Every structure is written in C-alpha cells, then in structure tokens.
C-alpha cells in the first residue's frame, strides 16, 4: 500500500513537470508569433489566423437596430465641442447690449449703500451698551 502511494506521488510529480514544460514551450511559441519571428511549421501548430489578427482591416457590421435608429433620428455626431466658440460666433455681436452687459458708472450718490444701514463698529457698540446701562 505504501509503495503504491509513493509510486502514485512520483507519477503525479512527473505529470506536473510535463505540464509545466508544455506550458513554458507554448508561451515561448506565442511570444515568437507575436513578434513575427516564428517559422511556418510552428505557426501551423496553433489554430490562430495570424493574417486576420494582424490586418484588422475588416469593418464590423452595424446591427439592424442601430441602422434603423440612425435613419430615423440621424447619426449622433460629435458632442464634445458643441458649446465651443467658433470664429463666426465670436465675431457676432448682434445680441450684445452695452446697457445690459456693462457695469453702471459709480458716482457719489451710488457710493453709499442702499438698504440697511451699516452696523456700527465694536467700540461704538460698546459705548452704546454702556450708555444704555447708565440710564
């Protein structure tokens, strides 16, 4: 029983070594094919069509649903630069109004703030507080 167990272990180790060696050889062959240095016989061992992979010239077929939507709504087109100024839009000043888009001129009348009166400073507030207590 013990001898059979040892023999089984030995066989299993040999199988694992063989698999590791085959994997190493396969990876080397793949590297050669990728670099284009492989010979014709080595390439035939793989089920890879290297010409098709390298060329990439075949265009993918657009599905019917996409074609139907494109014909109905039109192709989407470029979106990123849609809001960017062009030379025509830059030169077009028809919508510009100097009355609306320019700042009003400041004068002595406009200098004073409208609305709430400004809060008195810290020392003035302290004086007002002390006067209120003295009364």
Task: Lay out the secondary structure.
Elements: H1 2-35, H2 40-44, H3 50-55, H4 64-73, H5 87-91, H6 98-101, H7 108-111, H8 122-134
Describe the structure.
The chain is mostly helical. It is 60% helix and 0% strand. The protein has helices at residues 2-35, 40-44, 50-55, 64-73, 87-91, 98-101, 108-111, 122-134. The chain is elongated, with a radius of gyration of 42 Å. The mean pLDDT is 81.
Please sum up the structure shown:
By secondary structure, the chain is mainly alpha-helical.
Chain oligomer state: single chain
How widely separated are the two ends? 114 Å
Summarize model confidence as the mean pLDDT. 81
Q: Care to count the β-strands?
A: 0
> What structural class do you assign from the helix and strand content?
mainly alpha
Quickly count the helices.
Answer: 8
User: Rounded to an integer, what's the Rg over CA atoms?
Assistant: 42 Å
Strand content: under 5%
Main β-sheet description: none
Low-confidence stretches: none
Tell me the series of helices and strands, N- to C-terminal: HHHHHHHH
Helix share bin: 55-70%
Which labels suit this protein?
mainly alpha, 135 residues
